[in-house]
Structure prediction request, 297 residues.
Amino acid sequence: MDSQNYAQSLVSVIIPTHGGARNVERLVHIAKQVALATEVIIVCAGLPPHAADSEYVWGAKVVPASEQATASECRAIGAQHAQGNVLLFLEEGITLPLGSLKKYTAALLKGYDLVLSAGGRVLTTKGKLSSERCAYALLNHLLGQKQLGSASLEKAPFALNRKALEAIGQHHLHVPAAALVRAVQKALAITLVTSGSTGQAARKRSAANQPLAKKQALIFQEHGEAIQLLLQDKDVRGALPDGERHRILVQAPGLLHLRSVFYQESREKEGDEWGAKRKERPKRTRKRAQSRKKRSH
Prediction:
């Protein structure tokens, strides 16, 4: 098999981790079985730089990252080292069955470019939808992708092909919200996969056990920047409908122009001027008005 065909059949599995992580060996063992040709890349935050590119552990290539690196930054680094045509991104703290992981690569073989994990409803201890999930769902709504729910590139597992990686840009993966905006703008085919009990596993882990996790404030900031990126490509409403409002009429002269914003009538009906839409009086009201007028005479 020549190098080009090998790259097309190769699946690159990328696992962000840190020095004190557990369960990575088991995750690597499962990842190597995803496809016949699989490379596993461990991006380790806090690993000394001299250990890069030459160290292999459990048959996986180990790449260093900054000690302060987040999971998304580690994924972007791993994508730069990946050689496969399919990239599967995992999370160190969640181990899924092999069958669940193969769902992601299978969806890409069906013609999709980006495969996300179904968001589900990760609730807080008070039974409310978490603030992060609300941010994910809001961005998807503004993108016109309501069917994605609260799915996000912030959460692994997810997978993409080489076409999607080039369209988004490897370095843009470190800001998942902006990467998703670029994916939609490039008209990539996106679908969802239900990976299992990842939501329950996420609830059980505390922030102290997630050194690669982002702070909530940073997630909100990145989603705000992603929305700004979207508005630069769309109009001020992100291509969402404006109901029956006619905001341009606010600048029109006349006493009734503010009402005309909500009640617009055609020029044929009102002549050459804008006016308020007048509701017809009920027959009973008109008769009363006529009778009063007659009595006054």
User: Anything to note?
Assistant: The chain has two domains: 3-233, 247-296. The chain has a mean pLDDT of 79.
